[in-house]
Amino acid sequence: MTVATIEKLGVVGGGQMGQGIAQVAAQAGLDVLLVDMTRALADSAVAKIGKTLGRLVEKGKLDAATRDAVVARIHAGDDHAALGDRDMIIEAAPENEALKLQMFASLGQHARPDAILASNTSSISITKLAAASGRPERVIGMHFMNPVPLMKLVEIVRGLPTSDATLATTLELAKRFGKTTIAARDIPGFIVNRMLIPLLNEACYGLYEGLGTAADIDTGVRLGLNHPMGPLELADLIGLDTCLAIANVLHSELGDDKYRPCPLLRQYVAAGWVGKKAGRGFYTYDGQGQRT
Ligand code: NAD
Fold first, then answer.
1. Which domains does the chain have, with CATH numbers?
2. DSSP track, the chain
3. pLDDT at residue 1 tops 80
4. pTM for this one?
5. Which residues, judged by CB distance below 6 Å to any ligand atom, belong to the binding site of ligand 1?
6. Residue 95 C-alpha to ligand 1 middle, in angstroms?
């Protein structure tokens, strides 16, 4: 079986996950093209990666020359056609099935025929995305954790038609990024979010029912269960829109009411209070993302 070497990577979606994936890939020496809806969004994503790396330079964890070399390996774009020379493309657009299906159909048309298409989806069927792409054997789930540069795990999800060669190349890439992988079946939520989302949703119900304040619930889980973060602060970090989207997939696809999203979570998302990235969720944040 051939394990392809990935040198030119495309990343679609320059939000918190796409930025993290692009950063880790460029730090591993890959040439990265980061595509968002507009050139301005993509440019802003590349600038944010530069800032993140700049903070590492200030702390003495990275030298300025390395930062410059890493940033120089990341290019911005707004067009799937520009992804035509990529060996592999990782999609990190919002957790919306209709959007991702459309995207995989478009990427399937524009990417090189032998390029692998991976999705960073938290819950959506890789088999469905594979079918939409027109190259089902070269589609795979590569579920990074947030924040990507710090979190060791990548969950690898094989769709029904994913080939052994696609899996082998993807595992090799994750290893090059310095990540540990686990294999998860293509069942909604995979392994990590099947465990995590019910916990976060239950914390929302706890707040909704007045079980305690947000701070009490988080401190309870941090100190009582020895978790590094409380569930509500973690939900704020993930993005409440993303948490709700995943909960909706678990609820509708698995058909069990135990996954029913909490009405309070729906309300926060309706208000636009989607967490740290919006400056407000269960907690409030300043422009630097620090809790106020
Ligand atoms: P985000 O909201 O921070 O970023 C999404 C990005 O996609 C934005 O920059 C947006 O402009 C861009 N986008 C929207 N439509 C697009 C289009 N048509 N073409 C190109 N770009 C488009 O979201 P995120 O937290 O980075 O999540 C992205 C994906 O990663 C989702 O599938 C999510 O489930 C998954 N994920 C998220 C986390 C997390 O903790 N947030 C963890 C693991 C996986």
1. 8-184 (3.40.50.720), 193-278 (1.10.1040.10)
2. ---PPP-EEEEE--SHHHHHHHHHHHHTT-EEEEE-SSHHHHHHHHHHHHHHHHHHHHTTSS-HHHHHHHHHTEEEE--GGGGGG-SEEEE---S-HHHHHHHHHHHHHHS-TT-EEEE--SSS-HHHHHHHHT-GGGEEEEEE-SSTTT--EEEEEE-TT--HHHHHHHHHHHHHTT-EEEEE-SSTTTTHHHHHHHHHHHHHHHHHTTSS-HHHHHHHHHHHS--SS-HHHHHHHH-HHHHHHHHHHHHHHH--GGGPPPHHHHHHHHHT--BGGGTBSSSBB-TTS-B-
3. no
4. 0.96
5. 12-18, 35-37, 41, 92-95, 120-122, 143-144, 146, 238-239, 242, 277
6. 7
